[in-house]
Amino acid sequence: MIQVVVFACKLTLRQFQSQNLTVKTLYWLQISATVMLLQPTWKMNQEANVSGPILCLDLGRKRVGVAISDPTLIAITAVKRLLRSNWKQLLRDIKELIQTFDAQTVVIGFPQRLDGSEGSAAAEARDLAEKLARSIDVPVFLQDERLTSAAAEERLKGQGYARDEIVARVDSEAAAIILNDFISGGQQRRPVSRP
User: Fold this and answer.
1) CA-based angle 172:45:107, to the nearest 5?
2) Residue 80 and residue 66: Cα distance in Å, rounded?
3) Neighbour order of strands in the sheet with 76-83
4) What contacts 45, CB < 8 A, 6 or more positions away?
5) What is the CATH number of the domain that holds 146?
6) Which pLDDT tens digit goes with each residue over 112-155?
7) How far apart (Å, rounded) are the C-alpha atoms in residues 67 and 172?
8) Do 89 and 113 fall within a single domain?
9) Is the pTM of this model over 0.85?
């Protein structure tokens, strides 16, 4: 597979140099780059004993963004957000999502400050993650979520969504970004222990 990717990149480079760049060529370049980036990620996730599907939650005071990966950790889908009321209802909703998607891992967005320190929101997320780890049978991880809501809003604007659609989708889009960051492994994994 790697040889095919390298060939596609060389072909794309030749076409680019001859100024015969087409949409199809750009598509192949994008696919090739994606495949090359996913290979090390897949290997890293295998070594870290992280298996999919992975359920990701972006906790807010009123809403919880939800995203899910496929079993191979390649595709990520933003799912309809949850409304947050109390712990028992949130736990029921999360357990239902785990069962529905057969999630093997749960990732929770960890809202650190821009300087990396932890404030009250981070302490609340950690507490909830620890309660969740004690309540479910799959591993739970925390993942840095700095600036993901802003990135999610920009992404949705770029896709042409209206303001009211952005408000409805931004939480789960942020969860999808958090999950992508977790899968790509740019940071050290933060497992939540079961005390």
Assistant:
1) 30
2) 7
3) 76-83, 63-69, 54-59, 105-110, 140-144, 190-192
4) 51, 73, 183, 185
5) 3.30.420.140
6) 888 878 888 999 999 999 999 999 999 999 999 888 888 898 99
7) 6
8) yes
9) no
d(C-alpha 83, C-alpha 62), whole Å: 6
Q: How confident is the model over 23-68, as pLDDT tens digits?
A: 333 333 333 333 334 444 444 444 456 888 999 999 999 999 999 9
What is the tally of structural domains in the chain? 2
Let me know: does 67 contact 170? Beta carbons within 8 Å: no
Please tell me the distance from the alpha carbon of residue 95 to that of residue 139, in angstroms, as a whole number.
13
If DSSP codes are grouped into helix, strand and coil, which group holds residue 94?
helix
Q: Are residues 130 and 186 in the same domain?
A: yes
Quick one: pLDDT at residue 49?
67
Tell me the two tokens of residue 131: 């309660």
DSSP label of 148: H
Q: Is the pLDDT of residue 2 over 80?
A: no
More confident residue, 38 or 187: 187
Instruction: Compare 6 and 149 and report the one with higher pLDDT.
Output: 149
Do residues 84 and 166 share a domain?
yes
C-alpha to C-alpha distance for 175 and 148, rounded to whole angstroms: 8
Which of 69, 70, 3, 73 lies closest to 43 in space, CA to CA?
73
